Structure prediction request, 445 residues.
Amino acid sequence: MDSFLIRGGSRLKGRIEISGSKNSALPIMAACLMAEGRTTLKGVPRLSDIDSMNKLLGELGCHIFRHEPGTLTSGGMGPSLNGPLDITVTDEHNCEARYDIVKTMRASICVLGPLLAKRKRAVVSIPGGCAIGDRPVDLHVRGLQKLGATFHTEGGNIVGEVNGRLKGCRMYLGGAQGPTVLGTINVMSAAALAEGETTIVGAACEPEVSDCANMLNKMGAKITGHGTPEIRIEGVERLVGVEHRVIPDRIETGTFIMAAAITNGELELKHCNLDHLLAVEDRLQEVGVKITRENGTIYVSSSRRLQPIEMTTQPYPGFPTDLQAQLMALLCLADGISVITERIFPDRFLHVGELNRMGARIRKEGPTAIIQGVKELNGAPVMASDLRASAALVMAAMVAKGTTRIDRVYHIDRGYEKIEQKLMSVGADIERVSETGRTSVTVAA
Ligand code: EPU
Prediction:
């Protein structure tokens, strides 16, 4: 297992290119199971979660081919960090997502709707708990049941079947914690091939839902209202392969904005969409972070003394839970007391203990964290617990006095493409250490 050794005190300065969105790419790749012919996806980041989805789709009969960067023109759709990814379904025999893959990546649940709609059967291992809390899939199952699928559990798997074609209906898909992002995408995707019209009320409005809807529409689906709580889908008989570029990663963008702010640095973030981060921009302006934009580029700088704020995570367009840990790291150094409430995953606070090991003063009360700003953080050995908590620790380490060792950085490799190369190219001092010895890292050009 790799670790990061981060020497604090660098001020980030320079330009970073934002990758395509992991959380958009994963369900979009799963939706390709429904298309006839080849789909070419651009902007898919190189991450271990994407490798897991490639493996899963491979087992489900897809032929996957990753082009080298620059071997295909970007067709006016913007530049390519990576080569495009081709996905072609060549064999529809297997319908099973095995536990071995599902346990490494919960987004495997995204194949449930597409498999049921296209192959009439799906066997998906039930995802267990994870570091950010219980993550049930009951809403996915309920929505697909309303479309006519039947389910039972068998040996730790959800087994779903459809007799004939799924049938469109009007349904409510919200849960106790609000809408579900991947649940909405699963049901919307399946409804694209259902008979008749489906209306999803209480749908998630996240940009990743719209991105998937846009690709499905290019494939021949008839989806309107995505990006709002009411999505309408007129079922079609077939979908065909297309070319699609996934949206920029709004969580990576937000993380780098806050990394610039915590180091009192100045960053230029290329190829991102600030419209997907309006709630984040709003909170950060109050903290004292200066954010301006020009076309697809964001310029970030910040005042020396950060102001404390209150923030509650909410479904889109509210402040995303996936940036809660990073904001907490930033507020550790604010001039006063901040309050963060987590409404999406109320137990998503494993970073609190690790930040406190670095000298932060954070007290947790139920789903709320009270952060007393301190003058400085100190390097310490800490442990990454989940993807976004790891990013928060990297941010804290870059500003801490001395050296921080972050263990288990495989979490960060799941969702941040080339993070240490990107941060080192703007002045961070990060070294990746493997169990077998030190690895020197080449700074990205
Ligand atoms: N929920 C249910 N039942 C369900 C599904 C969800 O009760 O069947 C609850 C969850 O427990 C949670 C709330 O609904 O309290 C919202 O969860 P949601 O279903 O929206 O989460 P998700 O779709 O499984 C995606 C992202 C997460 C991100 C959440 C919330 C992907 C691959 N994952 O998960 O991203 O935190 O939406 O925005 O898109 C991450 O990237 O680090 C990450 C965890």
